[in-house]
Specification:
Organism: Allisonella histaminiformans
Order of helices and strands: HHHHHHHHH
Shape: elongated
Number of helices: 9
Radius of gyration: 20 Å
Structural class: mainly alpha
Pfam families: BPD_transp_1 (PF00528)
Strand content: under 5%
Helix content: over 70%
Domain ABC transmembrane type-1: 13-207
Transmembrane segments: 17-40, 56-76, 82-105, 145-168, 188-210
Number of domains: 1
GO biological process, one term: D-methionine transmembrane transport
Length: 217
């Protein structure tokens, strides 16, 4: 590969990492509380409220059912309203975030449901408020599992960001399409795949490490 392609490869890697990092942070800020809300507002739980739980579950399932490529196109007007463009890495963050929020919510919900009910009952018997139970029981106990789940979502976002490149989102996907596919440069395609594999392996390694460190059992 030419020095120009190497430069484009590093630039595209930076764009991919930027898209994934920002969308993951935004999605986590919204998705983690939603996951907690799905659990605690269910019937029989500490903040039981079917009026919140059922509509929330429906909306999350509805967004999850939309394929990412369709979601990107469907929300172009919303993306343009938020960031004043529908093309580029910043624009790609909007659909990436929206796609990640329901997955994070459901994975956090699953992680919290793994906590033995006896721990919650013990906290309630000692007079803990619902917020204290969430902060001091649910989140600390579910943290290792939540970190593993977030790692899975980050890896999925790397793949989705590459898909975003096919419609002008930038990043490694855009590089692979413009040079590897449209210009028939197989070496660029192979280099892009290798970089993506390395990135995913590093993310998985870091996620597993943090999960083990958070596990106090």
């Amino acid at each position: 590969m030419s020095p120009e392609i190497f430069s484009l490869l590093f630039e595209s890697l930076g764009e991919t990492l930027y898209m994934v990092a920002v969308s993951m942070i935004c999605a986590s800020i919204l998705g983690i509380p939603l996951g907690i809300l799905l659990v605690v507002t269910e019937k029989g739980e500490i903040l039981a409220c079917p009026a919140i739980n059922k509509p929330l579950a429906f909306i999350i399932n509805m967004i999850r059912s939309i394929p990412f490529i369709i979601l990107m196109v469907a929300i172009i007007p919303f993306t343009r309203f938020l960031v004043h463009t529908s093309i580029g890495t910043t624009a790609a963050i909007v659909p990436l975030t929206i796609a990640a929020i329901p997955y994070i919510a459901r994975m956090v919900e699953t992680s919290i449901r793994e906590i033995p009910s006896g721990l919650i009952e013990a906290a309630e018997s000692m007079g803990a408020t619902p917020m204290q139970i969430i902060r001091k029981v649910l989140l600390p106990e579910a943290l290792p599992s939540i970190l593993e789940s977030l790692t899975v979502v980050i890896v999925s976002l790397v793949g989705a960001s590459a898909m975003a490149g096919t419609i002008g989102g930038g990043g490694l996907g855009d590089l692979a399409i413009r040079y590897g596919y449209q210009r028939f440069q197989a070496d660029v395609m192979i280099a892009t795949i290798i970089v993506l594999v390395i990135v995913v392996q590093l993310i998985q390694f870091i996620g597993n490490y943090l999960s083990r460190k958070a596990d106090k059992r």
